[in-house]
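EI: anyone free to look at a 304-residue chain?
SC: sure, send it
EI:
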Amino acid sequence: MSERATTIVASRSVGDPAVVVRAEASLTMGAGDGEAGLVCSGPGAGLPEISGRIDAQGGWSVILRLDGATRVIGEGPLPPDHPFRGAGDVHLILECAGTGTADGDRVALWVDRILVADRLTGSSHGPWDRAGVLAASQTLPVGVVADDVRALVGSAYRATRLDPVVAELLAGAPEAWRRDCVPTGALSVPGALAGIACAPAAEAEQVEYYRFADGISLGGALDRLVADAGVRPPGRDCSAGPSDVAWSVAGEPTGRVVCFDRPAGGGRVIAWTDPGSLLLAVGTIAGGGYPELYDWWLGAGPGA
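SC: here you go
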């Protein structure tokens, strides 16, 4: 995702510059090749501006604009089951906060109450004195309507204490994509204690990890996922085709792995359980065949 050629920002002053600004709005985005989002901007050198955006491809991004140049702080796809696919209604929250540390500013973006981005900029650009709405398009016109726009300000940043279960999930995610993992917020998996989503995750669009309280809830969650997908994988080898099979480590049965074609949007899904850690994980890959899906899983799941 990159800065669009034509960008319109409608912003207003929040009063005195604030350490923390939280912008919120309900947006309706029409069909077209464009983006919509929220911004917070500051009076400092270079007129810094941070925006949180969604685009016509169903993706999100967080972008820093400074001295006329742009830098992508984070980007990725919305969760596969999210209803927004480039047009329609969506609720956004963007929070920009000066941490007062060498980590720089903290930027968080929520899409329909789901935290999709929680990033540190690595440099400080606040405090912030304006907040607003953004619309951007490169070619085709795009219409954006904003309702219930509001901004809240704070005089001090206080780091949120991380849920210890979320911390365990983050620590267990492969290090190569751990920095792209965020808590899932409103859980879409009934019975889960906590969850994280990592996007991208090497060759995968996204992988989600969920922790459960007991084995019954864990097994039931995988059964529901397969039933909701409307599939009955016939095989016994995920490297060859759609399958539902037990997986093992050193010959010892360890969990269950299910792989199948994604019912909508193309690509393939692989989901697995690890009863020893009460973990359910779901990975989605857009390209490649089952051998590639299986190879990705070998580095993403067992023991994760």
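EI: The longest helix spans residues 215-229.
SC: 👍
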